[in-house]
Each structure stands twice: as structure tokens, then as C-alpha cells.
Amino acid sequence: MDSQRKSSRISGFYRLPIKERLSIIAEKAELTSEEEALLSSGGGLAMDVADRMIENVIGSIAYPMGVAVNFRIDGVDRLIPMVGEEPSVVAAASNMARLMREGDGIKITRTDPVMIGQIQILELPDRDVAIKKLEEAKEKLLDLANQQDPILVKFGGGAKDIQLRPLETEAGPMLIVHLLVDCRDAMGANAVNTMCEKLAPVISDITGGRTLLRIISNLADHRLIKATGVVKKEDIGGAQVVDDIVAAWAFADADPYRAATHNKG
Q1: How many domains does one find in the chain?
Q2: pLDDT band at 264 (very low <50, low <70, confident <90, very high)
Q3: Do both 120 and 103 map to the same domain?
Q4: Is residue 246 part of a domain?
């Protein structure tokens, strides 16, 4: 593929007819004729398929798919498919990507893809003793967890650590076991939940407590991605505009009522 076909910079893309836009994207993304035909069909969902996906089906709703252009991420040009019903979102993303194209463009840093499985322990005879016993059994528990998904382990993932969190709650004292699992490219729910289910009875035996919930947490604070980009002040109206953007961010940083909408955007 030559450099022009690889480039995500498509000037005036929004002015083109839909058919021409699709033709350009099909060439750049090397879509098959079947894939191109599927996109041009409107992406309709057959009722018999919908009926097998969820319960009580009566119809389906279609959303428009657009492509955000101009993105350069870690030095590689990318075309970003976006689905949504709100106007200006794709245009705004494309415009900001254009302003951050210089050099390597947007730069990405990431942590390991670690998700948390939680095992809740109730009715402990002695929580401090339970913590000590679980710390002593950590390697045994990690080994047992990894036996549940050897393929994940083969690809460099698997259970990596165990953290213990004593909680005081309205229902009394509890001990929460956090199983930290590197899920690689998967979201991880199946792998994490399977590991937690397997560990729960063993943890009950070790601690003398009763395990209740054993399930993934969707607060993925160990699995983070950070994107940074540079925009020249001249491209957005000068130093005063930059200062105003920082002031708007500071408002959201200090105030949850502003942050709720600021973060949505």
C-alpha cells in the first residue's frame, strides 16, 4: 500500500457523496467487496438474528456510522469508525486530530490490561487471621486461578496478584479478595469470573468464612490508557483561548457537576 492510501488525511471528505466516501475508505482499509456491500446496505439487522440475541424482540434501531479522519497515533495514520446519533462529534474529532497531526501525532501510553475479580468473604471468625492465611496461600491461589485458563497464560496473561481489602459495611465487617488478572486483548469477564468461582470454595476453607459474590469489577483502575497531543496556540485562536481552555478544565477538575458533562464530551 502506498503512502497516499495509508494517509488518514482526507481533505474535504465531508463534502463528498456517501458512495464516494465509502469507495475511498474501502480502498484505504482494503475492504472486500462483501464488506463494502454490507456497509452500503445500511447495516440492517435481520429479525430472526435479533430474536436470537435478546428477549421479547419487536424490531431494531439503526445508528449512523461515520469515519473520523486525520488521526495519526504513535506515528501511524488511522481511520476511526464512530457510531452515534449526535451531530458534530465526528467532525470535532476529525478537526482536533488534524490539529495534532504533526510528528507522531497523538501519543499513547498504557498500563498492562489488568482487570479485578472480587471475592466477598463474610462471617469470618477472625479477619486478621484470615488475612494472614490468605497472604501465605497467595502463590497457591494464583496457581489454581491460572489453571483455569492456560491459553490466557500462554499468551502472557493470567492471574498476577492478590490484594486483600477489609471493609466495614452496613451489613457488618467483610474481607474482599481482589484477584488481579492480565486479560491481554480480552475484556476478561469470562476468564476472571471463572477464576473467582474456582477460588471461592478454597478461600472459604482457608479462612473459615463464607464467600458470597465472586465476580469481575468494571472499575478498571489497573487498566488505563493515556493519550496526549500537542496543539499550537495559533491554530486555536491564541494564548487567551489556551488560558480559557485551562480554566474550563480547572472548573471541571474541582466540581463534579461540571465534570459530569466535561468528561462526557
Answers
A1: 2
A2: confident
A3: no
A4: no
Whether 7 and 96 map to the same domain: the answer is yes
- CA angle 261/262/263 to nearest 5° reads 90
Write down the pTM of the prediction: 0.84
What are the DSSP calls for the chain, one per residue?
--HHHH----TTGGGS-HHHHHHHHHHHTT--HHHHHHHHTT-PPPHHHHHHHSSS--------EEEEEEEEETTEEEEEEEE-S-TTHHHHHHHHHHHT-STT-BEEEE---EEEEEEEEES-S-HHHHHHHHHHTHHHHHHHHHHT-HHHHHTT-EEEEEEEEEEEETTEEEEEEEEEEE-TTS--HHHHHHHHHHHHHHHHHHHSSEEEEEEEES--TTS-EEEE----GGGGT-HHHHHHHHHHHHHHHH-HHHHHHHHH-
Q: Are 53 and 76 in the same domain?
A: yes
Q: Can you give the residue range of the structural domain that contains 155? A: 114-217
Please report, for the domain that includes residue 24, its CATH number: 3.90.770.10
Q: Is residue 252 part of a domain?
A: no
pLDDT digits (tens, 9 = 90+) for 209-246: 999 999 999 999 999 999 999 999 999 999 999 999 99
Report the C-alpha gap between 196 and 190 in whole angstroms: 10
The CATH code of the domain that includes 150 is 3.30.70.420
Buried b or exposed e, range 191-227, using 16+ CB within 10 angstroms: bbeebbeebbebbbebbebebeebbbeeebebbeeee
The answer as to whether 213 is a domain residue is: yes
Cβ neighbourhood burial of 230 (10 Å; 0-12, 13-18, 19+): exposed
Residue 264 within a domain? no
Last residue of a domain, one of 46, 76, 109: 109
